[in-house]
Amino acid sequence: MNDDNREAGTDSTSNAAGEAGLWQRFFRPSRQRSIAFICAMGFAAGVVFWGGFNWAMEMTNTESFCLSCHEMEDNVYREYRKTIHYTNRTGVRATCPDCHVPREWGHKMVRKIQASNELLHHLLGSLDTREKFENKRLKLAKNEWKRMKRNDSRECRNCHGFDYMDLTKQENRADRRHEQALKENMTCIDCHKGIAHELPAGIEEAERELGVGVYRSASKK
Amino acid sequence: MKRTIQMIMLAANIIVMMAATGSLARGQAGGLQSLRGETPLTDTTAAPAVRKQNTSAGRFNRAYRQQPPLIPHNIEKYQINLKVNQCMRCHDWPYNVEEGAPKISETHYVDRKGVALDRVSRTRWFCTQCHVPQANARPLVDNDFESTVNVR
Protein backbone atom coordinates (compact mmCIF):
# COMPACT_ATOMS: atom_id res chain seq x y z
CA MET A 1 0.00 0.00 0.00
CA ASN A 2 1.28 3.35 -0.73
CA ASP A 3 -0.75 5.12 1.96
CA ASP A 4 2.33 5.79 4.02
CA ASN A 5 3.98 7.47 1.11
CA ARG A 6 1.05 9.58 0.19
CA GLU A 7 1.73 13.25 0.51
CA ALA A 8 -0.35 15.23 2.90
CA GLY A 9 -1.52 17.61 0.27
CA THR A 10 -2.87 15.13 -2.25
CA ASP A 11 -6.25 14.23 -0.82
CA SER A 12 -9.36 16.33 -1.05
CA THR A 13 -9.53 17.39 2.52
CA SER A 14 -6.57 19.70 2.59
CA ASN A 15 -5.47 22.66 0.53
CA ALA A 16 -2.47 22.82 -1.72
CA ALA A 17 -0.05 23.59 1.07
CA GLY A 18 -1.19 20.51 2.98
CA GLU A 19 -2.98 22.35 5.80
CA ALA A 20 -6.48 21.14 6.71
CA GLY A 21 -9.17 23.51 8.01
CA LEU A 22 -10.51 23.21 11.50
CA TRP A 23 -13.60 21.37 10.37
CA GLN A 24 -11.64 18.82 8.38
CA ARG A 25 -9.25 18.27 11.24
CA PHE A 26 -12.14 17.49 13.48
CA PHE A 27 -13.27 14.61 11.33
CA ARG A 28 -9.87 13.08 10.75
CA PRO A 29 -8.56 10.25 12.88
CA SER A 30 -6.35 11.43 15.69
CA ARG A 31 -2.63 10.99 15.25
CA GLN A 32 -1.45 11.64 18.80
CA ARG A 33 -4.26 10.49 21.05
CA SER A 34 -5.28 6.91 21.74
CA ILE A 35 -8.82 5.68 21.45
CA ALA A 36 -8.86 5.14 25.21
CA PHE A 37 -7.97 8.74 25.79
CA ILE A 38 -10.60 9.99 23.41
CA CYS A 39 -13.22 7.76 24.99
CA ALA A 40 -12.28 8.96 28.45
CA MET A 41 -12.52 12.55 27.32
CA GLY A 42 -15.88 11.85 25.73
CA PHE A 43 -17.11 10.22 28.92
CA ALA A 44 -15.99 13.19 31.00
CA ALA A 45 -17.60 15.60 28.58
CA GLY A 46 -20.79 13.56 28.74
CA VAL A 47 -20.81 13.75 32.51
CA VAL A 48 -20.33 17.50 32.40
CA PHE A 49 -23.02 18.05 29.80
CA TRP A 50 -25.55 15.69 31.34
CA GLY A 51 -24.91 17.14 34.76
CA GLY A 52 -25.20 20.62 33.36
CA PHE A 53 -28.43 19.74 31.59
CA ASN A 54 -29.95 18.37 34.75
CA TRP A 55 -28.66 21.29 36.76
CA ALA A 56 -30.37 23.63 34.34
CA MET A 57 -33.57 21.59 34.51
CA GLU A 58 -33.62 21.70 38.28
CA MET A 59 -32.66 25.35 38.41
CA THR A 60 -35.70 26.17 36.28
CA ASN A 61 -37.72 23.97 38.62
CA THR A 62 -37.46 26.24 41.64
CA GLU A 63 -39.92 28.74 43.02
CA SER A 64 -37.42 31.55 42.80
CA PHE A 65 -36.94 30.92 39.11
CA CYS A 66 -40.66 31.00 38.48
CA LEU A 67 -40.92 34.26 40.37
CA SER A 68 -38.25 35.88 38.27
CA CYS A 69 -41.05 36.80 35.88
CA HIS A 70 -42.98 39.70 37.35
CA GLU A 71 -46.24 38.34 35.96
CA MET A 72 -45.88 35.39 38.27
CA GLU A 73 -44.77 37.29 41.30
CA ASP A 74 -47.41 40.00 41.12
CA ASN A 75 -50.35 37.78 40.31
CA VAL A 76 -50.27 34.13 41.23
CA TYR A 77 -47.58 34.29 43.88
CA ARG A 78 -49.44 36.93 45.87
CA GLU A 79 -52.56 34.79 45.81
CA TYR A 80 -50.66 31.64 46.68
CA ARG A 81 -49.23 33.26 49.78
CA LYS A 82 -52.66 33.39 51.37
CA THR A 83 -53.24 29.68 50.99
CA ILE A 84 -52.59 26.58 52.98
CA HIS A 85 -49.89 25.33 50.63
CA TYR A 86 -47.79 28.35 51.57
CA THR A 87 -48.18 28.39 55.32
CA ASN A 88 -49.90 25.91 57.57
CA ARG A 89 -49.74 24.14 60.88
CA THR A 90 -47.04 21.64 60.01
CA GLY A 91 -44.89 23.70 57.68
CA VAL A 92 -45.06 21.05 54.98
CA ARG A 93 -45.60 23.00 51.79
CA ALA A 94 -45.84 22.83 48.04
CA THR A 95 -44.21 25.41 45.81
CA CYS A 96 -44.71 26.15 42.11
CA PRO A 97 -42.99 23.09 40.61
CA ASP A 98 -44.59 20.67 43.04
CA CYS A 99 -47.98 21.21 41.44
CA HIS A 100 -47.18 22.44 37.96
CA VAL A 101 -44.19 20.33 36.90
CA PRO A 102 -44.48 16.54 36.91
CA ARG A 103 -41.86 14.61 38.81
CA GLU A 104 -41.37 11.74 36.35
CA TRP A 105 -38.55 12.46 33.96
CA GLY A 106 -40.45 11.90 30.73
CA HIS A 107 -43.46 13.98 31.72
CA LYS A 108 -41.12 16.63 33.10
CA MET A 109 -39.30 16.95 29.79
CA VAL A 110 -42.58 17.35 27.93
CA ARG A 111 -43.60 20.09 30.34
CA LYS A 112 -40.29 21.84 29.99
CA ILE A 113 -40.67 21.91 26.24
CA GLN A 114 -44.20 23.28 26.64
CA ALA A 115 -42.73 25.97 28.87
CA SER A 116 -41.17 27.58 25.83
CA ASN A 117 -44.68 28.82 25.07
CA GLU A 118 -44.69 30.61 28.40
CA LEU A 119 -41.35 32.14 27.60
CA LEU A 120 -42.72 33.35 24.29
CA HIS A 121 -45.71 35.01 25.93
CA HIS A 122 -43.50 36.60 28.52
CA LEU A 123 -41.48 38.18 25.74
CA LEU A 124 -44.64 39.19 23.92
CA GLY A 125 -46.02 40.72 27.10
CA SER A 126 -49.34 38.90 26.83
CA LEU A 127 -49.96 39.03 30.56
CA ASP A 128 -47.82 41.83 31.76
CA THR A 129 -50.56 43.82 33.45
CA ARG A 130 -53.05 42.80 36.08
CA GLU A 131 -55.96 43.48 33.74
CA LYS A 132 -54.55 41.26 30.99
CA PHE A 133 -54.01 38.53 33.53
CA GLU A 134 -57.54 38.76 34.91
CA ASN A 135 -58.95 38.59 31.40
CA LYS A 136 -57.03 35.42 30.74
CA ARG A 137 -57.49 33.88 34.15
CA LEU A 138 -60.39 31.60 33.28
CA LYS A 139 -58.67 30.24 30.18
CA LEU A 140 -55.43 29.57 32.03
CA ALA A 141 -57.25 27.98 34.92
CA LYS A 142 -59.22 25.72 32.59
CA ASN A 143 -55.97 24.61 30.96
CA GLU A 144 -54.64 23.51 34.31
CA TRP A 145 -57.89 21.85 35.34
CA LYS A 146 -58.01 19.90 32.09
CA ARG A 147 -54.39 18.84 32.54
CA MET A 148 -55.07 17.61 36.05
CA LYS A 149 -58.16 15.77 34.97
CA ARG A 150 -56.18 14.09 32.20
CA ASN A 151 -53.43 12.89 34.49
CA ASP A 152 -55.75 12.09 37.41
CA SER A 153 -54.27 14.84 39.58
CA ARG A 154 -50.87 13.19 39.43
CA GLU A 155 -49.11 16.16 40.98
CA CYS A 156 -51.53 16.30 43.92
CA ARG A 157 -50.92 12.61 44.52
CA ASN A 158 -47.19 13.22 44.70
CA CYS A 159 -47.82 14.34 48.25
CA HIS A 160 -51.44 13.50 49.11
CA GLY A 161 -51.82 9.76 49.09
CA PHE A 162 -55.55 9.29 48.70
CA ASP A 163 -55.43 5.67 49.79
CA TYR A 164 -53.51 6.62 52.92
CA MET A 165 -55.85 9.35 54.11
CA ASP A 166 -57.11 8.77 57.60
CA LEU A 167 -60.74 9.75 57.11
CA THR A 168 -61.45 9.56 60.80
CA LYS A 169 -59.15 12.53 61.35
CA GLN A 170 -61.02 14.73 58.88
CA GLU A 171 -64.03 16.95 59.36
CA ASN A 172 -67.42 15.33 58.73
CA ARG A 173 -67.89 17.04 55.40
CA ALA A 174 -64.45 16.06 54.18
CA ASP A 175 -64.95 12.51 55.40
CA ARG A 176 -68.18 12.12 53.44
CA ARG A 177 -66.84 13.71 50.29
CA HIS A 178 -63.62 11.72 50.23
CA GLU A 179 -65.50 8.49 50.70
CA GLN A 180 -67.74 9.43 47.82
CA ALA A 181 -64.72 10.36 45.73
CA LEU A 182 -63.09 7.02 46.39
CA LYS A 183 -66.27 5.19 45.46
CA GLU A 184 -66.94 7.15 42.29
CA ASN A 185 -63.32 7.36 41.22
CA MET A 186 -63.21 11.11 41.26
CA THR A 187 -60.00 13.03 41.08
CA CYS A 188 -58.67 15.74 43.36
CA ILE A 189 -59.18 18.64 40.97
CA ASP A 190 -62.90 17.89 40.63
CA CYS A 191 -63.54 19.59 43.95
CA HIS A 192 -60.34 21.24 45.05
CA LYS A 193 -60.17 24.05 42.56
CA GLY A 194 -58.79 27.36 43.73
CA ILE A 195 -56.73 25.68 46.40
CA ALA A 196 -53.61 27.67 45.58
CA HIS A 197 -54.70 30.68 43.57
CA GLU A 198 -57.83 32.78 43.33
CA LEU A 199 -60.73 31.26 41.50
CA PRO A 200 -61.73 32.82 38.20
CA ALA A 201 -65.18 34.19 37.47
CA GLY A 202 -67.27 31.81 35.38
CA ILE A 203 -66.40 28.67 37.27
CA GLU A 204 -69.89 27.20 36.89
CA GLU A 205 -69.59 26.96 33.13
CA ALA A 206 -66.14 25.51 33.47
CA GLU A 207 -67.39 22.80 35.79
CA ARG A 208 -70.17 22.04 33.38
CA GLU A 209 -67.62 21.61 30.61
CA LEU A 210 -65.41 19.43 32.70
CA GLY A 211 -68.35 17.36 33.91
CA VAL A 212 -67.53 17.58 37.60
CA GLY A 213 -69.48 18.27 40.74
CA VAL A 214 -73.22 18.41 40.19
CA TYR A 215 -72.55 18.22 36.48
CA ARG A 216 -71.22 14.69 36.68
CA SER A 217 -72.98 12.18 34.44
CA ALA A 218 -76.57 11.56 35.51
CA SER A 219 -75.92 7.95 36.42
CA LYS A 220 -73.76 9.04 39.33
CA LYS A 221 -76.26 11.47 40.90
CA MET B 1 -60.95 92.14 84.29
CA LYS B 2 -61.15 90.31 80.98
CA ARG B 3 -57.51 89.42 81.32
CA THR B 4 -58.05 88.02 84.82
CA ILE B 5 -60.87 85.83 83.62
CA GLN B 6 -58.72 84.57 80.79
CA MET B 7 -55.92 83.67 83.20
CA ILE B 8 -58.33 81.86 85.51
CA MET B 9 -59.82 79.89 82.61
CA LEU B 10 -56.36 78.95 81.38
CA ALA B 11 -55.28 77.80 84.81
CA ALA B 12 -58.49 75.77 85.21
CA ASN B 13 -57.92 74.15 81.81
CA ILE B 14 -54.39 73.21 82.73
CA ILE B 15 -55.52 71.70 86.00
CA VAL B 16 -58.28 69.71 84.31
CA MET B 17 -55.89 68.49 81.62
CA MET B 18 -53.34 67.38 84.19
CA ALA B 19 -55.99 65.55 86.12
CA ALA B 20 -57.22 63.91 82.95
CA THR B 21 -53.70 62.92 81.94
CA GLY B 22 -53.18 61.49 85.37
CA SER B 23 -56.31 59.40 85.10
CA LEU B 24 -55.47 58.42 81.51
CA ALA B 25 -52.15 57.15 82.75
CA ARG B 26 -54.11 54.94 85.06
CA GLY B 27 -56.22 53.68 82.14
CA GLN B 28 -59.32 55.60 83.05
CA ALA B 29 -60.70 58.72 81.42
CA GLY B 30 -62.66 60.76 83.84
CA GLY B 31 -63.21 57.78 86.04
CA LEU B 32 -64.63 55.62 83.25
CA GLN B 33 -63.56 51.97 83.27
CA SER B 34 -63.07 50.74 79.70
CA LEU B 35 -62.29 47.43 78.04
CA ARG B 36 -58.64 48.39 78.04
CA GLY B 37 -58.49 47.61 81.70
CA GLU B 38 -55.63 49.11 83.66
CA THR B 39 -53.14 49.41 80.82
CA PRO B 40 -52.16 53.04 80.26
CA LEU B 41 -52.81 54.56 76.87
CA THR B 42 -49.12 54.84 76.22
CA ASP B 43 -48.58 51.09 76.51
CA THR B 44 -49.74 48.33 74.22
CA THR B 45 -52.13 45.82 75.69
CA ALA B 46 -51.39 42.14 75.38
CA ALA B 47 -53.17 40.60 72.41
CA PRO B 48 -56.12 38.38 73.33
CA ALA B 49 -55.73 34.66 72.75
CA VAL B 50 -56.78 33.37 69.35
CA ARG B 51 -60.24 31.89 69.60
CA LYS B 52 -60.44 28.59 67.83
CA GLN B 53 -63.67 27.99 66.04
CA ASN B 54 -65.92 25.39 67.60
CA THR B 55 -66.70 23.03 64.75
CA SER B 56 -67.76 20.03 66.78
CA ALA B 57 -70.50 21.65 68.84
CA GLY B 58 -73.26 21.22 66.29
CA ARG B 59 -75.32 24.26 65.38
CA PHE B 60 -75.67 27.14 67.79
CA ASN B 61 -79.19 28.44 68.27
CA ARG B 62 -80.21 31.87 67.07
CA ALA B 63 -80.89 34.52 69.64
CA TYR B 64 -83.73 36.11 67.67
CA ARG B 65 -85.68 35.00 64.63
CA GLN B 66 -84.04 37.35 62.14
CA GLN B 67 -80.51 36.55 63.24
CA PRO B 68 -78.35 35.27 60.37
CA PRO B 69 -77.48 31.70 61.30
CA LEU B 70 -73.97 31.06 62.51
CA ILE B 71 -71.50 29.04 60.49
CA PRO B 72 -70.78 25.73 62.22
CA HIS B 73 -67.87 24.66 60.04
CA ASN B 74 -64.42 25.96 59.28
CA ILE B 75 -64.42 28.69 56.64
CA GLU B 76 -60.75 29.53 56.52
CA LYS B 77 -59.47 30.32 53.05
CA TYR B 78 -62.93 30.29 51.48
CA GLN B 79 -62.83 32.88 48.74
CA ILE B 80 -65.56 35.47 48.56
CA ASN B 81 -64.65 38.22 46.16
CA LEU B 82 -66.01 39.94 43.09
CA LYS B 83 -65.15 36.95 40.96
CA VAL B 84 -66.41 34.05 42.99
CA ASN B 85 -68.27 33.06 46.13
CA GLN B 86 -67.24 29.67 47.41
CA CYS B 87 -70.02 29.49 49.96
CA MET B 88 -72.45 29.14 47.07
CA ARG B 89 -70.66 25.98 46.02
CA CYS B 90 -72.61 24.14 48.73
CA HIS B 91 -75.35 26.46 49.86
CA ASP B 92 -76.83 27.60 46.59
CA TRP B 93 -79.36 25.62 44.61
CA PRO B 94 -78.85 23.03 43.03
CA TYR B 95 -75.66 22.23 44.86
CA ASN B 96 -77.20 22.17 48.30
CA VAL B 97 -79.26 19.10 47.49
CA GLU B 98 -76.27 16.88 47.01
CA GLU B 99 -74.17 18.51 49.69
CA GLY B 100 -76.91 18.29 52.29
CA ALA B 101 -76.29 21.91 53.25
CA PRO B 102 -78.93 24.46 54.24
CA LYS B 103 -80.10 26.39 51.19
CA ILE B 104 -79.71 30.13 51.55
CA SER B 105 -82.90 31.92 52.44
CA GLU B 106 -85.24 33.06 49.68
CA THR B 107 -84.74 36.60 50.93
CA HIS B 108 -81.27 36.44 49.42
CA TYR B 109 -82.67 36.11 45.93
CA VAL B 110 -84.53 39.40 46.07
CA ASP B 111 -82.71 42.58 45.18
CA ARG B 112 -83.23 45.82 47.02
CA LYS B 113 -86.02 46.90 44.70
CA GLY B 114 -87.98 43.76 45.48
CA VAL B 115 -87.33 42.09 42.13
CA ALA B 116 -87.01 38.31 42.43
CA LEU B 117 -83.83 36.97 40.85
CA ASP B 118 -82.59 33.61 39.73
CA ARG B 119 -79.17 34.07 41.29
CA VAL B 120 -78.11 35.41 44.64
CA SER B 121 -78.67 39.15 44.78
CA ARG B 122 -75.50 41.16 44.64
CA THR B 123 -76.58 42.94 47.77
CA ARG B 124 -76.24 39.62 49.58
CA TRP B 125 -73.03 38.52 47.94
CA PHE B 126 -70.62 38.85 50.85
CA CYS B 127 -71.87 36.27 53.28
CA THR B 128 -69.51 37.00 56.11
CA GLN B 129 -70.80 40.54 56.46
CA CYS B 130 -73.69 39.01 58.37
CA HIS B 131 -72.92 35.35 58.97
CA VAL B 132 -70.14 34.72 61.45
CA PRO B 133 -68.47 31.47 62.46
CA GLN B 134 -69.41 29.88 65.75
CA ALA B 135 -66.88 30.40 68.45
CA ASN B 136 -66.70 29.91 72.19
CA ALA B 137 -66.44 33.61 72.85
CA ARG B 138 -67.27 34.82 76.35
CA PRO B 139 -69.17 38.08 76.57
CA LEU B 140 -66.76 40.97 76.82
CA VAL B 141 -68.74 42.57 79.60
CA ASP B 142 -71.25 41.01 81.92
CA ASN B 143 -74.74 41.53 80.62
CA ASP B 144 -78.20 40.11 81.03
CA PHE B 145 -79.08 39.72 77.36
CA GLU B 146 -81.81 37.17 76.85
CA SER B 147 -82.70 35.32 73.71
CA THR B 148 -86.18 36.18 72.39
CA VAL B 149 -87.07 32.52 72.63
CA ASN B 150 -87.63 33.15 76.29
CA VAL B 151 -89.46 36.46 76.07
CA ARG B 152 -91.79 35.94 73.10
Please give a structural write-up:
The complex is a heterodimer of chains A (221) and B (152). Chain A contains 10 helices and no strands. Chain A is mainly α and 221 residues long. Chain A is elongated and about 85 Å long. With 152 residues, chain B is mainly alpha-helical. Chain B is built from 4 helices and no strands. Chain B is elongated, with a radius of gyration of 25 Å. The mean pLDDT of chain B is 83. The A-B interface holds A 82-84, 171, 173, 194, 198-201, 203, 213-214, 221 and B 55, 73-74, 76-77, 79, 81-84, 86, 89, 94-95, 98-99.
Query: CATH superfamily of the largest domain in chain B, please?
Result: Flavocytochrome C3, Chain A
Which sheet architecture does the biggest sheet of chain B show?
none
What is the tally of beta strands of chain A?
A: 0
Percent of residues of chain B in helical segments? 10-25%
What's the story with the biggest beta sheet of chain A? Answer: none
Number of H/I helices of chain B: 4
**CATH-scheme architecture of the largest domain in chain B:** Orthogonal Bundle
| Main interface by residue count | A-B, 14 and 16 residues
What is the element string of chain A, with H for helices and E for strands? HHHHHHHHHH
State the helicity of chain A in percent bands. Answer: 40-55%
> Strand share of the residues of chain B?
under 5%
Distance between the termini of chain A: 87 Å
